[in-house]
Amino acid sequence: MCGIVGYVGEKQALSVVVDGLRRLEYRGYDSAGVAVVSDGSLETRKKAGKLANLESLLGEDPLPQSTIGIGHTRWATHGGPTDANAHPHVSEDGKVAVIHNGIIENFAELRAELSSRGVTLRSETDTEVVAHLLAETLPSTNMNLAEAMRIVCRQLSGAFTLVAVHCDVPDVVVGARRNSPLVVGRGDGENFLASDVAAFIAHTRHAVELGQDQVVELRSESITVTDFDGQPAPTVEYEVTWDASAAEKGGYETFMAKEIAEQPKAVADTLLGRVDAQGQLKLDEMRLSEEQLREIDKVVVIACGTAYHAGMVAKYALEHWTRVPCEVELASEFRYRDPVVGPRTLVVAISQSGETMDTLMAMRYAREQGAKVLAICNTQGSTIPRESDAVLYTHAGPEVAVASTKAFLTQIVATFLVSLYVAQVRQTMSQADIDAVVRELSDMPGKVDLVLDTTEEMKALADELKDSRSVLFIGRHVGFPVALEGALKLKELAYMHAEGFAAGELKHGPIALLEDGLPVIVVVPPPGGGAIVHEKIVSNIQEVRARGARTIVIAEEGDDAVIPYADHLIRVPACPALLQPLVATVPLQVFAAAMSAAKGHDVDQPRNLAKSVTVE
Ligand code: AGP
Hints:
Layout: E1 3-8, H1 13-22, E2 31-38, E3 41-48, H2 51-60, E4 68-74, E5 89-90, E6 96-104, H3 107-116, H4 128-137, H5 145-153, E7 158-166, E8 173-178, E9 183-186, E10 191-194, E11 206-209, E12 214-218, E13 223-227, E14 236-239, H6 244-248, H7 255-261, H8 263-271, H9 290-295, E15 298-303, H10 305-322, E16 326-330, H11 331-334, E17 345-351, H12 357-368, E18 372-377, H13 383-386, E19 390-393, H14 406-426, H15 431-451, H16 455-465, E20 470-475, H17 479-494, E21 497-502, E22 519-523, H18 531-546, E23 550-556, E24 568-572, H19 581-598
Parallel strand pairs: 15-16, 15-17, 17-18, 18-19, 20-21, 20-22, 22-23, 23-24
Antiparallel strand pairs: 1-4, 1-10, 2-3, 2-4, 5-6, 6-7, 7-8, 8-12, 9-10, 9-11, 11-14, 12-13
Helix pairs in contact: 4-5, 8-14, 8-15, 10-14, 10-17, 14-15, 15-19, 16-19, 17-19
């Protein structure tokens, strides 16, 4: 998620903006830039890398004094983290500067239209189109930047927060938002715009939350908010009570809590722009030709940790939808076992950070064997996608907490999109069946949002179980990787012994572990989709309960078969069996975070762990 700051008032804009960007650094970014308006001219400075790089540039090539400015820290989505792709983006006449957070879904068409009108585009970003469109539109609005922004916003689809300045409109900062946050800070003789309040609470705690499809015109003494048609729009004013550190977490106690709560949006953003109006999957960004996808005779997923569990979920879907055999390999084991890999193997490297050395070394090995590598990654321009033949980015936004949460759900979504696309190309599914799955996937952000409501329940459960010696997790079908993921979360956050099993394996040994009061968390598949599997896991619950286990059952709404055997019953929204990991995992994430907090651990930075393991 990018960081956005705008300022108009009496102070030196540059220091207000750069300080605001520094307070947004936690969001993660890979380039930064600022623009100011001074004496009728627009000046911008921008640089790949951290704020320090921008500040050294500003030291070498200072900006003029100004009391109006905008600033941006970029988390790359379209186009790698380079100086040219950094924001602000400027119109050809050099008079408009724009910064942006989100994804402009129709940017390709807009870029083509602009080029056809002779506009030279200088970056790979979606954002740049807005700067050119504003410059084209402004003259027709009698230099009303807010009106120009409204006209341009009506041409955009996707998710965007936009902030712009124009050197011929020297006392105005204009912002707009759709499906992406933008908040106003109301000051005394000054006003602020930001992607979250952390950027300006050092100056004011009076905040004005902007709503969907709204444009705000900021002057030092006025804040004017309209809808995209120019009608006055309602706003919500409130006092910010958070302290600076809480504000960085958007008011959440931990980054992990914030990132768990961001999962509905992360899933929605990962789906955005990848299905057209006719329901056809659009994944040409992957750069894998249909012919290549027809030629593959095996898929090998390589990953570590949570990403490996996402790969295990992907296997069930990919084989079911495409009939292409799929192996899922721990990256650290893969290249030492002399695997069978060749030119008709598609290797899928799943990695949130894109820097995990085990995964990087495994994919290098696979490429040496002639395999094509598709990266599924959350970090634009990182090493793994850079060295892959193709990439499909998850759009989860930066994941700061070491324990991976929203990355897991978006990795599953991304692998489902790839699997459906392969099925579409190889025609192993009817278009009607693909459409049905795509419709179900588009309902998932709402269902994930619903399951966030289990937070208080899971916190209470964690309090009860915090002194348990161990916790077992069992599941069947895609519930098995979810069980493994739940166990991993508990290990890395609560430092407790936890183990995940395929429920069918219990009787082959692990059932000897059972004793009175031992918590066993059971991920129950939907009764409809996997009826046989459902029956079997209900009997597994009876087996473990008969041996004294304390059963914590995660089952979908309306599944009453489990009621007699559940000491605790956590409900999740009904959804197709293959999609259930997207909702069943969330209570386990919350449970582990709550257990960590109950034990007084650092939820965001657990002991011994790094966010990205860049050593083998
Ligand atoms: C998950 O909570 C852990 N932080 C860890 O297992 C992680 O998933 C693994 O190291 C892989 O990281 P990556 O996705 O960045 O490659």
